Amino acid sequence: MGAKTGVLVYADGDARAALRRVRACQADIGATTDLVRLLRPGWPLEAVDGDTLGEAAYPPDGVAYAAAFPGIDIVCDRRLMLDYPSQMPEHLVEAGRGRTMALHAMHSVVDWLAFAVWVDGRLVRSLSLSPDGGIVEDIGERLPFETAYWAGERPVEPEPRWDDDEPYALPFHPLELGEEALRALFGFVLEGRLDPDGVNPDDIQLHGYRLTDPDAAARAAEQARLIDQMRRIGPRRFGFGPEGRLVERSGPGGTTVRDMPQE
């Protein structure tokens, strides 16, 4: 299991049915660009090569992939990978008024999964968990596809290469539930069996955009200034003066700055 995702979908109704309708269709470039601007208001963007949903679900850093189709909008961006999906920026939630909005975020390196569903702007389900962090967020009624996992019917079997006999920290593997969430929410999977009536993510073409944080240069300059300032100041140096008093010293010559107060 090695899948990673940062996917946000807005749908008029069932996202699975919408994706089946639009596969192999060309997304509206104007509406798609507006969708990406919604993601990061005020950020400059430039078009880059697009990719299929199967490859674009976890974009390179600083790149977003998106597509606006009739009845469904898709955005893929690493910055959507929220530990707490309930803290989704309000303007993105507002954009889902009158629609169903779903987030899927997953990272195979740390076995982390987060997904959430909003209906008409109201959060109805959010889950975020990993074996190291435990259950970070668990809001709302569990969805039908989760039932077998929470019931202990999908346990993680120990492997001989494990260094200890400790059981897996969760009652199921987050990445396995993650693939099931992709299937249930969007109708496709990245790893595993594709349903006969499912969507092949490689049939869905997304446009690519590079987004530039307008404040990044200023933050980098400020960080460099602080590092330079700390370098110039150097560490505080102490020593004993002629009378045995502890003093703070500075400079290459060891100039005494001041006597330290004695208790």
TrEMBL record:
Residues 241-263 are annotated as: Disordered. Pfam families: DUF6928. It comes from the Bacteria. InterPro entries: DUF6928. This is Uncharacterized protein.
